[in-house]
Specification:
Layout: E1 2-13, E2 16-27, E3 31-35, H1 42-49, E4 57-62, E5 65-66, H2 72-77, E6 80-82, H3 95-101, H4 117-129, H5 145-157, E7 163-167, H6 175-190, E8 194-198, H7 202-208, E9 211-216, E10 219-224, H8 226-229, H9 233-240
Parallel strand pairs: 3-8, 3-9, 6-7, 7-8
Antiparallel strand pairs: 1-2, 1-4, 4-5, 9-10
Helix pairs in contact: 3-5
Bound molecules: adenosine-5'-triphosphate.
Amino acid sequence: MRSLETVELTKAFGGNLVLDKTTVSFQHGKVNALIGPNGSGKTTFFNCVTGLIRPDSGRISYAGADITRRSPHAIARAGLGRTFQLCRVFPRMTVLDNVLAATRPRGVNLLRGAGGRKETDRARGWLTKLGIEHLAHAEARNLSWGQQKLLELAGVLMSEPETVLLDEPAGGVNPALLDRIGALVRDLNAEGRTFVIVEHNMDLVMSISDHIVVFDRGRPIAEGPPSLIRTDERVLGAYLGA
Ligand SMILES: Nc1ncnc2c1ncn2[C@@H]1O[C@H](COP(=O)(O)OP(=O)(O)OP(=O)(O)O)[C@@H](O)[C@H]1O
């Protein structure tokens, strides 16, 4: 079953054609990875899919619905949640307040109306699941980079997304936390969540993914299970610059 798909998605910045008629689909209920060399368009792809930037042409659909021109909010409501490469948390707010604020529109009164008993319990539940409940009252800026990534993910999960897009979850994270992130993804997937993960750490990608799509210069050049991708000549060529 198809979850997220694009048809001839195209985006250029000035003369730089970053997504070049990209037609790709990710599998519902699976852990999908999107990999490719630096600058191959992975984050731009996420930005188009989540409505942060407008593609020049092409179509994006999610669970059968056309979401191409929808706002980031509408796309989140449709069930797509995402994290960012450079982690988005409020550094001077507590961990718990960050999670509560994550479900509010950005701007004024981030916490107004948040923090009712039920919401707070749910927020704590996610913090527990992600192993950072003991930090609930710490300011986010005092967390390690990896813990901040878990915090950002907790905020995303508050919206109960059906599909989670993770942008470099392992970037800058220490090895102990890396294992935890990998186990968490598998665990959340077993509960029914679909993942699409942009990641450079190949050990992590190969160990947690069911399906891998490889981009090179904004186009998918290979896709399949880890066993196939690992030995694909085109993939090796793209990474080695051949
Ligand atoms: N807002 C923007 N304005 C201009 N150029 C941009 C913008 N966003 C991305 N680019 C360019 O698009 C190209 C692809 O960048 P993108 O971040 O999508 O690649 P990536 O595959 O995610 O790379 P990395 O693995 O290094 O994060 C790069 O050449 C980048 O400079």
